[in-house]
Design a protein that fits this description.
Blueprint: E1 3-5, E2 12-14, E3 16-19, H1 29-41, E4 46-50, H2 57-65, E5 76-81, H3 88-102, E6 107-113, H4 121-133, E7 137-143, H5 147-157, E8 164-170, H6 182-189, E9 192-196, H7 224-228, H8 233-249, H9 253-262, E10 267-272, H10 277-284, H11 293-302
Parallel strand pairs: 3-4, 3-10, 4-5, 5-6, 6-7, 7-8, 8-9, 9-10
Antiparallel strand pairs: 1-2
Helix pairs in contact: 1-10, 2-3, 3-4, 4-5, 8-9, 8-11
Length: 310
């Protein structure tokens, strides 16, 4: 699997990443182990988790599998801290708790989610600097922030060893709003963009074209609203275009959607979520696909967020 540098940094990740949002909730330890082994065997390196996935169980599960299933040195470990605000002590305590759950003394990429207007920007920046100085985090990234928020915090961190290297954002054929400000800001500030939900929360696989499969996330009480966001008339048109492209290329809609997001300007990696190794294997097949220019142009047009009706 090809790798890419994250922004203007020395951090290198596989251009397809493994997400763990379902781990500890819909994905048990055995299935998670199969996913991780399959991903690393395919050449994947970037594994993305968070303190809120499964209320911490995803990090615990990942910590139990590394280095038992794969060596720690074979993965680039990224985690996102959510829901603790921007206070220095709260952020560092949350990171320490994450490290305990992961069973490691450091993460390669620590991303902080959200923007706390009640805390001075320099205090949040200080927490991130301490994490780097202490060796708990190799690189710093941001998540869940708009362009001006990310730029403000980035300015307080500077362009040296503490610089922001990544910005994680939802990005897919059905969710291109990041192109309005976030992607241009990332290009100016040399942030590598990590795109989550490249399959439109599952909608772009085509599985919801004729209803809700009983074994899908859309049928899950926990994920129904998560998937439902992209079950719109506009999304349906994009899905049909994706299915048509896949038929012409002799591949799956999943591969088309993933390849489209993976090769957009500024994208360092797209993070794939799967409930089992079979779903992940199907997603990893996108690594071999290069979309012809005419198909990419057609998908660009049908999914244009600034031209299509809402």
């Amino acid at each position: 699997m090809d790798g890419r540098r994250v922004g203007r940094s020395g951090l290198r990740v596989s251009r397809l990443g493994l997400g763990t949002m379902t781990w500890g909730r819909d994905t048990d330890a055995e299935a998670a182990a199969a996913q991780l082994e399959s991903f690393v065997t395919a050449g994947g390196t970037f594994v993305d988790t968070s303190n809120v996935y499964g209320d911490g169980k995803a990090e615990e599960m990942l910590g139990s599998l590394v280095p038992v299933v794969v060596p720690r040195s074979s993965i680039v470990l990224g985690t996102t801290t959510v829901g603790v605000g921007g206070g220095r002590r709260a952020l560092l305590d949350a990171l320490d708790a994450t490290l305990v759950r992961l069973g490691t003394d450091h993460v390669d990429l620590w991303q902080v989610h959200g923007f706390d207007t009640g805390v001075p920007y320099e205090e949040t920046a200080t927490a991130l600097q301490i994490a780097v100085d202490s060796g708990r985090a190799g690189y710093i990234g941001l998540s869940g922030q708009n362009a001006w928020q990310a730029a403000t915090l980035s300015a307080h961190l500077g362009t040296g060893r503490y610089r922001v290297v990544s910005l994680e954002v939802e990005y897919s054929l059905v969710e291109r709003s990041a192109e309005d400000a976030i992607l241009p800001a990332a290009a100016v500030h040399d942030w590598g963009v990590l795109g989550w939900a490249p399959l439109g929360r599952g909608v772009l696989t085509g599985k919801y074209r004729h209803g809700t499969p009983p074994d899908s996330r859309g049928a899950s009480a926990h994920f129904a609203r998560y998937v439902g966001k992209h079950r719109t008339e506009r999304a349906a048109r994009i899905v049909e275009a994706t299915v048509t492209a896949a038929q012409g290329l002799g591949c799956t809609p999943l591969a088309v959607a993933c390849a489209w997001a993976r090769d957009r300007p500024g994208i360092a990696s797209v993070v794939l979520g799967a409930r089992d190794a079979g779903q992940l294997t199907a997603a990893l097949a996108a690594e071999e696909l290069i979309l012809p220019a005419e198909i990419r142009a057609a998908l660009d047009e049908v999914s244009d967020p600034f031209d299509a009706p809402i």
